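Q: What would this complex look like in 3D?
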Amino acid sequence: MSAPVTSATSESFEEQSTAAESRRIRRRSLGLLRSLLRPVAGAAWGTAALVVGAQLAAVAGPALVAYGIDQALPALTDGDAGPITLATAAYLAAALLGGVLTAATVRASARVSQTMLLDLRRRVFRHTQRLSLEFHESYTSGRIISRQTSDVDALRELLDGGVTTLASGVLAMVFTAVSLVLLDWRSGLVLLIAVVPGVILTRWFQVRTQVQYRKQRTAAARLIVRFVETMTGIRAVQAFRREPQVREVYGDLAEDYRGSSATSIRLNGVFDTGLTLIGNVTVAAVLLVGGLRALDGGIEVGVLVAAVLYSRRFFNPLQQIGMFYNSFQSATAALEKLASLLAEEPTVPDPERPKRLAEARGDVRFDDVEFGYGTGPTVLPHVDLHIPAGQSIALVGETGAGKSTIAKLLARFYDVRAGAVRLDGLDLREIDPVDLRRAVVMVTQEAYLFSGSIGANIALGKPEATPQEIEAAARAVGVHDLIAAMPDGYDTEADKRGVRLSAGQRQLVSFARAFLADPVLLILDEATSSLDVPGEALVQVGLQTLLADRTSVVIAHRLSTVMGSDRVLVIEDGRIVEDGSPFALVAAGGRFADLHADWQRSLRRTT
Amino acid sequence: MPSAPPASPPESTTRVLLRLRRWARPALPRIALGGLTALGASLLALAVPQVLRVIVNGPLLSEGSQRGVILGAAVVLALGVLEAFLVWCRRALILTPGTTVERDMRTDLFRHLLDLPVEFHDRWSGGQLLSRIMSDLGTIRRWTVFGLVMLLVSATTVVVGIGLMLATSWVLGLVYLVGAVPMIWLGFRFREDYKVVARRARDQAGDLATTVEESVHGIRVLKAFGRGADALDDFARQADELRTTEVHKAKTQSRVSFALSAIPEAILAVSLGFGVVLTSRGELSVGALVAFFATAAVVNSPVERLGMLLAMTLDAKAATDRYLQVMDTGSAVRDPAEAVALPVADPAGSRVELSGVHFAHPRSASADGELRGGSDILAGIDLVLEPGETMALVGLTGSGKTTLLQLVPRLYDVTAGSVRIDGVDVRDLSRADLRAAVSIAFEDPILFSASVRENVLLGTDLSGQAADDLVAEALDVARAGFAYGLPDGLDTIIGEEGLSLSGGQRQRIALARAIAVRPRVLLLDDPLSALDVTTEAAVTGRLREMLTGTTTLVVAHRPSTVALADRVAVLEDGRITGVGRHADLLSTHPHYRYVLTALSALDDPGGADDAQADELAEVRP
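A: Here is my prediction, written as C-alpha cells for the whole assembly.
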C-alpha cells in the first residue's frame, strides 16, 4: 500500500559534475531548444532578416558622418550643396528604416518567443500528465510546479529580449568591424586584435557561470517546494505553532538562493568590467594609431572620427551580449531541468498498438500477478482472481495488506511486475487509454476539487454532460439538495481545494463525478470514509442502481458497506486468504468472521 | 477562474515603487553610492569626445604635434580604464543590496502569509502566491540592481550629454533637444498602455501557475477519469491567452522602440546637414563637429536603452503592486494588544464555553461578480464542555462541525458570540499561547516532509529522552506501531517528499501528533474515519484512558466514534439542538437518530443492534 520512494532519478545530476555527464545534459537541453525552434524556424529567420536590416541601417550612420566631413564639407565650401543634401537625406532614410525595422523586430521576436513558450508549456504539461503516478509520488508536486513556472520563466527571459539582443549585438559587431575594415583596414586590425581577449573573457565567463546557474535553479526549486508544502498545509502549521521553525527553514533556503544569485551577479560584474576595459583600451589604441597616421596625412580626419565612432560602437553591444549571456546561462540550466523531466518515461506507457474496447462488459481477471513498487520489495507475491462481469466485490484487510495496491493495478495506475490484469480478456496494457478510462473509474479517499464551479467539477466525469445529466448524478448520490441550496447552485465556485465544502461533501461531489462517468468497472478506495451515516445510506441506494449491471471493487472499513457486496476478499500480506459471500464467510468462521464479531461488539457498546 | 481578489485602484508608478524603500532602506547608501559611480562612469565616457575635439582642433589640424596626439590617446586610455573601474565599483556596491532586498522581501512575504488567517488562504490560489514570491520578486530584484540605477544614470547621461552638445554648438544642441520632445511624449503614452498590459500578463501567469498546481495536486483524479487531455486543453487555452497578452505587450513596446531608435538617428541626420553648413561658413570648428557626433554617439545608446528601462520599471511596478496587494492584506485574526494569560491548568481539565457563537464565511465575489454576504453557518451556538469531559459533536455532513472545531484555536474567528477557555475569551489570548493549549487532529491529515518523529513532535518543543518517550506514547495510543517497521523506523521521511502512507496510516500519525501536544483542549475531527473496526476499537480504548484531564471535542460520524464520548451534542441548522448521553439521545432526539442510523424518526427505535440490522437490510441489494 505504501509506495517506497524511488530515488529521484531525474534530479540526481545536480550532485554529479563529471565532464561527460555535464556534456550529455547540455546536449539534451540544446536538443530541446532546437526542437522548440523547429516549428517557428520560418518566423525566426524572418526575424533574423529584420535584425540584419535594422543593423545595416544603423551601421550607415558613421560612414555618412565621415562622408559628410571629408567630402560634403569641402564640396559645400566650394559651393556644391549636392553631397551634403544627399548625405542628410540618406541618413534620414536610414534612421526611418532603422526605426521601422527595429519596431518590427520587437513584434516578430515576441511572436516567435511566445509561440515557443506556448509550445514548451504545453509539452511539459502534457508530459507531466502522461507520467505515471509512481513518478508523481517521488518527484513531489513542488518540483513539478517549479519546472512549469520558474524554469519556464527563465527561458522566457532569454527569449523575451535576449535572442534579438544577441542577434542584433553580434550583427552590429560584425557590420561595424566590416565597415571599419572597409573604411580603414589598419584601424580595423586594431579592433580585430581586441576581439581575442574578448573571446577569452567570454569563454571564462561561460565555464564559471554554467555550474553557478545550475545551482541557482536548484536553489529556486527548493524554495518553491518548501513554499508549496507550507501553503498547502497552512492549517497544520498554524494550529501547531510551527511558524517560527517553518520561517527559519524558509529563511535559510531564501539565503541559499540569494547567495547563488549573488555569485552569478558577481561573475557578471567581472565580465561586464572586463569588456568595458577591453573596449576602452581599443578606442584609445585606434585613436593613437589613427591620430599618428593622420599627422602624416595617412588618413583623413573624418575617417579617424568614423574609426573612433565605430570602435566605440563595436563594444557597445558587448554589455548587452553579457546580459544575454546571463539569461542564456540561466535558461540553459532551466532547460536542462526541463529536458530531464521530458526525458522521463512513463512507467505505465501507452500501448503501441492500442486495442479498442468498444462494448466493455466488466469481466476482470488477475492472472499470476506479481507486484511491488519501483524496485522495492514485493507487495503482491501472487494474485489469481476472476471477477465475473456485474459482480460487486469488497476488499477487506488490515491497513497495509495490499488492498489499495490491488485497486491501483485495476485502474492501471501501476503496471504489474509479472502476470497480467485483464479486462474482458484484454491485457490492460494493450487497451486504448481512452477506452480504458471510460470503462474503469477509480474514486479515492482524497476528493480533490478543482477551481471552477461545482457543476464543472462533477462534469469532470463526463465533459460533454448536459446540466440535466449533472443534476441527475448529483441527485443519485444525494448531494443535489446541498448544491441547490448554495448561493449559485451548480455554478457556485468550489473554492480553493474545496475547503468550504466539508470532507464528506467533497466525497459526495467526487462520487457524483464517478456516477456521471458511468464506467463498467467502478473502484472505490475508501471513497465513502468521510460520509455520515445518512450520506452513506443515500450513496448506497444510488450505488444499487449504478452497480446493478456493473462490476465494482470497493475498499471500505465499514462493514455496513462490505456486507452489501456479492463477494468479500480478505487480503493479508498481499494474498487473498478468504473469498466468498459475506454471509458465507461469517458462517464459516475465520478472519472475516472475527472482524464481523468486532464490529457487532462495537455497535453494541455504543448503546 | 477566480484566482485572486481584484486589484486595488491604480496608484502612480512612483508612489508604488517608493514603497520599496521599506525594504531598500538599509541598502540605500550603497545603492546611492553605486548610482554615483555609475554616473561617474558615464560622465567619463562623455569626456572622451571632448578630448577628441581638442586633439582634432589642436595637434591634428593646426599644430601637427605627435606628442599632442600621444598625450591625447593616453588621456582617453586613462579615462577608459577609470570608467571600467567605476563599472566594477557599481557592480560591487549594488550586488549585496540587490539580493538582500529580494531575500528580505521574500522572507517578509512568507512571514506575512504564515500570519494571515486560514480564511485568506481559502480565498487565494496557490499559484498566485507562488508567482508573487518567486517571479515578481525576481523582477523587482532585477529592477533594483540594474533598472533603477541605469534609469537614473541614463537619464543623467542624456541630460549632461545634451548640455555638452549645446555647449559645443547651441544650434546642433537645440536640434537634438527639439527632437527629444516627441520621444518624451511617446514615452508617456507608452507608459499608460504598457502598465495595463504588464499587469494583465502577470495575473494571467499567476492563473497559469494555479492551473499547473491543481493539475499536479489533482493528478490522481485526472488520471482516474482519463481527463489529462481536457486538463491540457484548459491549460493550453490559458497559456494561449497569456501568449496573446505578451504579444500585445510587445506591440505596445514596439511603438516606443520605433520612436527611440528612429528619432535619435533622424536628429543626427538633420544635425549632419546643419553642422556641415555651419562648418562651411566657419561658424563651427571641425573639432567641434567631430565632438558633437562623438557625444551624440555616446548619448544615443542610453536613449535607446531608455525604452527598455522604462518597460522594466513598469514591469517592476506591476510586480510591486502584486506584492503589496498581499502585504497590505491585514490579518483579521490578530493577537490582542495586551494578551491575557490562561489561568493555571486544573488537573481535572479546562472548561470550554461557546456562547452565542455565529460564524459566516466573509463576503466573496460569486460567479456573476456580485458580492455576496456569507450566510451564517453557525447561528447561535451555546455549548459548555466541562473540565475533562469528552464530548462528541454529531451532525449531518456540511452542518458546520469542522468549522466549529476550528473556531477554538482561532483558525477562523467567530463573527459574533465568544469562545472561552477557563473563562478567558480566546481572542484575548496570544495565538501562540492559545495554540499551545489547544491541539487539533484534522480529518484530512496534513503531514510534512519530515521524519515520523518530527511530524509527531510538530506541536511540542521537547527534545531528548522526554521527546522519545512522548513519541512512543503518542504512537502507542494512536496504534501507529507500524511506524517502527518503516524502512528507517521513526526517522523515515514521510509526507510529500518521502514515503507515501495510506490514508489510515496518515490519520494515525496525525492523531499521535495531536495527542503529543498534551493539550488542555483536544479537538478531533472524525479522527478514525479511515481506520478499520478492529483498529478503531483499539485506538478508542487507549484514547479514553489517556484523555482523563483533557477536555475533548470529537466530531463523530459513526456510533463507534461516539463511543469515545461522555456526552454528545447534536448540531442541526447551525444550532445545538440537543446535548446528552448517546443512548438517551438515540431514543429522544429524532435528528440524532437519523444522523447516526439513517433511520427516520418514524421507525421504531428498538435496539441499536436491530437498527443496524435494519440499515443493512436497507442497503443490501
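A: To summarize the key features: Residues 243-295 of chain A form the longest helix (53 residues). Chain A has 19 helices and ten strands.
Q: Very helpful, thank you.
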